[in-house]
Each structure stands twice: as C-alpha cells, then as structure tokens.
Specification:
heterodimer, A: mainly alpha, Helix Hairpins, B: about 150 residues, mainly alpha, 2 domains
C-alpha cells in the first residue's frame, strides 16, 4: 500500500487545482448548458482528488468517506437539476444555449 | 511515485482536452476519461470502496448520462474566453503558491499510510442518516424531473 508523502501530496493537490481551474475555464467559456454540466463534473472530479490526502489522516478517514458520498449525491442532484434545465430550455426556447436566458430568477 | 505522477499528468492532459475541444461530445468523453483516472488514483492508494463509488456511480451513471446528453444536443460551441481572465487566474495562483510555501508544517496532521476499512464507516449512525437523507433528496429531484419530462408543463 503506497504511503502519502510530501511529494505525493503535492502531486495530488497540484493536479486537483489544475483540474479545478480547467473546470472554471470551461464553465466561463461555455455557451450552452451541456458544456456547463461537463465543467461542473470536472469540478467534482477535482474535489474527489483533493479528498485523497484526508484518507491518510487516521481520525479523518470516516469524515473523508462521508464527504465523498456527499459529493457523489451533490453531483447526482446537480445532474438532475441540469437535466430539468435542459428540458425546460429545449421546450420553451428550442435551444440549450445559455444566451437565450435573458433574465435571472423566476417569475411568480 | 512515478506511476502516480503519470496518472496525474494524463488526467490533466485529458482535462485540457475538455477545455480545448469545441465539440461537446468529445468534451464529455474526455471528462469521463479524466474521472476514470481520478478513480484510478484512489485505486492506487488501495481505497477500493471510493474507487467503486466513483467508477460505477459517478462515471458509470452520471458521466454516461452526460455523454448521452452531449451526443443528443451535439453542436460546436464558440469559445468566449477573454484573455483578461489570465490576470485573476495568475493572481490567485500566486496567492495560493505563497500560502502553500509559507504554510507552517507543525506536525499536527501528518499524512501517512492509508488504512481505510468500510466496516468502520457503516456503524456510525449519523453517517447512515446522512446517506438516507441524501437518497431522499435525489429521489425527490428524480420525481420532479420525471414529472417534468413525462407530461408536466412548467
């Protein structure tokens, strides 16, 4: 079983930060909801990678696993909400591009 | 160490593929490969339960649904990244690098060999309660989506 030393920790955190940054850049460059969904999942992937060092601290192992489960559920919820958004956009605007959304919030 | 660095490097390369690809379908495929490599890093540290969770639920379900959505709504998006974003990105990277380099390693949290067993997680009642609440949340969201997709008009 490989131990986590300083170098491994640096590799993991640097990779996590890079993937998170790429997720941010993809999100701000996205012009449709599908690409936004892809970028959000990249960010969740970065979160998973950043969790690995927590498993190496004895009293944080269960907490790290709980965070991993919460992250998976959050990602599932995000997917369902974005599927709803895609469905509504496609039905009402006949497009999944974000520029068809002209105002924020909801009309009650 | 070399294997870990190689895995991380390939993961970053595939993540870059997500950014530079102009086709959402290929971006979704690159994203799936990146997430599989993230799961592989967990397997590298012998964290099999998390590896299975990520591979079968996160990639196997969520990732594949994303690929299917991208294939259904397949268009070539225009890139709109302004180079002015390089300024806050560089500033953030600088601040993070400085924070990491000056971080005092007092030894209170020392990384060591990973010893993780799922059997220690399951008896905790609060974690089980958390999982039950999360499943209820996802089911409620799923019912909303199904209602919207089957016949509802919002």
């Amino acid at each position: 079983m490989p131990a986590i030393d300083g170098t491994s920790l640096s590799i993991l955190l640097a990779t996590s930060f890079t993937i998170l940054l790429i997720g941010y850049l993809t999100a701000i460059s996205s012009k449709d909801v599908i690409r936004l969904l892809i970028s959000l999942e990249m960010m969740f992937g970065a979160v998973f990678l950043a969790l690995v060092p927590l498993f190496s601290v004895a009293h944080l192992v269960n907490t790290a696993f709980a965070i991993a489960i919460v992250t998976i559920f959050a990602s599932s919820g995000e997917l369902l909400i974005l599927i709803s958004a895609i469905s509504i956009l496609d039905r009402q605007k006949r497009s999944v591009k974000t520029d068809v959304v002209t105002i924020g919030g909801d009309k009650l | 160490m070399i294997l870990l660095a190689a895995l991380a490097g390939v993961a970053v390369l595939f993540a870059l593929g997500v950014l530079v690809s102009s086709d959402n379908f290929y971006s979704a495929l690159f994203m799936s490969v990146t997430l599989v490599l993230v799961a592989t890093i967990y397997a590298f540290f012998s964290l099999q339960p998390v590896f299975v969770l990520i591979l079968f639920i996160f990639v196997g379900a969520i990732g594949i649904v994303t690929v299917a959505l991208a294939a259904t709504y397949r268009t070539a998006p225009e890139q709109q990244v302004s180079w002015f974003w390089a300024i806050p990105v560089a500033l953030t990277a600088l601040i993070l690098a400085e924070a990491i380099s000056f971080y005092p390693l007092d030894g209170s949290i020392v990384p060591s060999t990973i010893n993780f067993q799922l059997v220690n997680f399951i008896p905790h009642l609060e974690y089980l309660l958390l999982v039950v609440f999360l499943i209820a949340l996802v089911l409620l969201l799923l019912l909303s989506v199904l209602r919207m997709g089957v016949g509802g008009r919002s």
